[in-house]
Specification:
Layout: H1 7-28, E1 35-38, H2 41-47, H3 53-56, E2 59-63
Parallel strand pairs: 1-2
Length: 71
Amino acid sequence: TMEEPDFHQQEEDRFARDLTERINAMALAGELDALVVVAPARTMGVLRPLWHKEVAARIVRVGGVDDLDVL
């Protein structure tokens, strides 16, 4: 049997990709000095390979949602 598609996860992944495009554009336009990223591990797995090197250079803190109290 085929597993049902996880539409919620597909939407979350799409949101992460769209957000990364916007953040990449901001970094390349010089509109981003620093970035703190808080996201679930699976979402981080979507984001990381899509970040432009200019974004990666501006990331000052990365954490999961469980780290919110210490960020």
